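ok so for the tutorial part 2 we go from a plain amino acid sequence to predicted structure tokens. step 1 is just haveing the sequence, like this:
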Amino acid sequence: MNNYSIHQVLFNIVIPFVIFSATLLAWYFLRKLLFNRLILWSKQTKRRFTEIIINSAKGPLFIWFLMLAIYLALKFSEPPQSLVDITGKVLLVLGIISIMLVLSGTSVALIHFQAKRAKTITPVTSLMQNMTRIVIFVLGILIILYSLNIQITPILATLGVGGLAVALALQGTLSDLFAGFYISATRQIRIGDYIKLDSGEEGYVTDISWRATTIRMLPNNMILVPNEKLSKVIFTNYYLPQKELAVLLNLGVHYGSDLRKVEQVTIEVAKEVMAEVSGGVPGFEPFIRYHTFGDFSINFTVVLRAKEFVDGYLVKHEFIKRLHERYKAEGIVIPFPIRAVNYEHEQAGREIK
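step 2 — the prediction. this is what the tokens look like for a chain of 353 residues:
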């Protein structure tokens, strides 16, 4: 091998490879050092928008350095013109894809950020996040095709005809998709709400996807309810119009009880529970209402208040336990279910027959 061929190999292979590797190595150290410091700086200065952009640019940064490495490697070599043309198109596609990744990550992060700042906007669901990504990537693909001088009009026409066929074939899936949009937009069900379906299932809403709504029950089981079905069933949302709700307990005392004393003692215990039990509402004034002369007791309802639905379980637990002890100390009787039989009247009826 003569000196010219050695120089040519060195110029066309070794040097471009070294430049390519050095550029990627620079990306590795830049990602480790610079990005960590930028994220730490954004957290210290509490500039949430800057932190969102930095996190969104983490992944695309590799693509940018890869593009730079390819460009520099070609710059210091003498490749064929055909390879230069192909590489130029590849770099263009990589550049558009990287921009799509940044826009997608930034858009989803901003949606989450705004959702935390303003409770009045539409809740963040996986359906909203996925649709945001799909719209950005579809636009990016169209831009790529247009940049490569590929006619997109026939493609759009084909997609229109194909979309009609797909819509007919996937009617059920599309029904769930649009029902998911309806549920999210109306805000009748939000992420974190506690709901109960008319079929008896109840729990916290954890996600609304394109196909189904996920509900986590109190035993930590997951229920997947198709969005179309959920939009048609009758359900109770225990977080609307607000989380606080009344806790009702039906009780009864003996007919010989002093009802004024019963009311006084019951309210005292109820106030104690409201003030001391976690989940109770301290500022609420509990009350009772007598409503029925029952078969063996005078019945009434005690009205308490809990901060949210699941807190009602603890409020009821503590109230019943404390009220039972207080009634026992005050001599107030909660009668057992009884049935009286008038034997003489029953015997007289048999003699007449």
